[in-house]
Amino acid sequence: MEKKSKYDVAVVGATGAVGRTMLSILEERKFPVGRLVPLASSRSTGTQVEFNGQKITVEELKADSFEGLDIALFSAGGSISREFGPIAAQAGCVVIDNSSAFRMEKDIPLVVPEINPHAIGDNPGIIANPNCSTIQMVVALKPIHDRYRIKRVVVSTYQSVSGTGQSAIEELRVQSSQVLDKQPAAKEVYPHQIAFNCLPHIDTFLDSGYTKEEMKMVNETRKILEDDSIQVSPTTVRVPVFYAHSEAVNVETEKAIDVEELKKILSSAPGVRLVDAPGKTEYPLATDAAGRDEVMVGRIRADLDNPRAVNLWVVADNLRKGAALNAIQIAEFLIRG
Ligand code: NAP
Ligand code: 3JM
Prior knowledge:
Largest sheet: 6 strands, parallel
Bound molecules: NADP nicotinamide-adenine-dinucleotide phosphate, 3-(2-carboxyethyl)benzene-1,2-dicarboxylic acid
Strand content: 15-25%
Oligomer: single chain
Structural class: alpha/beta
CATH architecture of the largest domain: 2-Layer Sandwich
């Protein structure tokens, strides 16, 4: 990307859970933003967002919104990305897209900067940001794959409501007090009560019986780790947690695993924070991961029966490393030149 002292940046979906996190991360990492253009639907046109101490008016997303801008960060859902992503790229922006719209397209890089920045290439039009559950898992898996070669992963997720967006955060809050007050829980976002419950249903069901969210974990993991032989067996579950996703991961490898060696490897792996002192009740927790950048890994233990397998507990802030932070790390990589 052309070297400049400042870059003009559009944030599509700037009023949403991911978009707002993007604004705060651009600010806290001092990304060299020239003009910031917050875009959303006509519903929030004219409202204001704060950026670097200034109030900036949200504009309605339109085909001509991208003229003269350098970078467009998209997080307004797949159909908006499909419609406006190519328009923004055509207008000369590098598009970093948080939706599932382009992730599995052959010519579109799917990037986690700690793992495969080389996939970005010289002249990217659109770069896809992986799914939140995939990102935190592959950050933990990559060093394991490099040392022991992963054959198969069995994963169950415990995903927070912020992964669904602003309306779901509100639904958990409202339902929690309704249930505590012995009132019926009002259901709008999820098909069932999410407060005090676990829903084994994220995104839509496919004929296979798996959900789209589960298949994102299968296909995106293979693309990012550049190994189609890796088997992934996922169950994705929505839990009544506001921020940060947790994952129980069983990893089967070609080579035998020395757990102490693996802990050492993970303790210095990029983007990972090892939190593994169960005797002191220290292990990754959603409440600790919320608001932080690293992927926390702990509860590392040998599989009881298979010397070529381990169990892990992996936790990260889904709005940060799972979405906004990863996208902005991609942007930082681009402007580093
Ligand atoms: P959210 O809180 O519901 O926010 C949605 C945002 O999209 C709002 O800013 C909304 O603007 C905007 N929007 C909706 N319809 C629009 C339209 N027709 N035109 C322009 N803007 C529109 O959802 P979120 O959690 O931020 O997630 C947004 C998207 O990011 C998701 O749909 C998903 O594709 C992606 N995402 C990716 C990951 C990941 O794993 N990488 C994680 C979470 C989300 P208004 O204020 O005008 O409604
Ligand atoms: C996370 O298109 C939509 O309605 C958005 C659905 C969605 C996605 C997606 O498929 O883009 C919501 C939350 C994701 C994602 O990261 O895959």
